[in-house]
Write a structure and sequence with these properties.
The chain has about 120 residues and is mainly beta. A hairpin with a 4-residue loop joins strand 2 and strand 3. The radius of gyration is 13 Å and the shape is globular. The two termini are about 25 Å apart.
């Protein structure tokens, strides 16, 4: 967004974040997400803030959230189950900039992969 780079935490090696183009399909100031929402069963069940719900070309759902439970990981370690965690201030800023229909591109290699 206008040259702004946001540090993030993405999926761990076991749950890599898929790179590519994704469309914002919904926004939630606060919502409860569970592993069931992304096909991971009952691995987690928690409330998140400044949530952007995304869909890729294959119809898979992903999320951008404020990673308030582990902000120190953002930009340092990948700790999620495939979704994207931002610092609270960055998540709030991005939430304000994007609307349903906005397209974002996730670039880079998933942890444990090359390229």
């Amino acid at each position: 967004m206008a040259g702004r780079k946001l540090p993030l935490s993405s999926g761990r090696a076991k749950y890599p974040t898929k790179p590519g183009r994704m469309t914002v399909v919904a926004k939630h100031r606060s919502t409860k997400l569970s592993g069931n929402d992304v096909g991971l069963g009952e691995t987690y069940d928690a409330y998140f803030h400044w949530v952007l719900e995304l869909r890729d070309a294959e119809g898979r759902t992903n999320y951008v959230v404020a990673l308030t439970y582990d902000e120190k990981s953002v930009g340092e370690r990948d700790v999620t189950h495939g979704w994207l965690g931002l610092r609270l201030a960055d998540a709030k800023w991005l939430y304000g900039k994007l609307s349903p229909g906005s397209v974002i591109t996730i670039e880079g290699a998933a942890p444990g992969t090359s390229g």
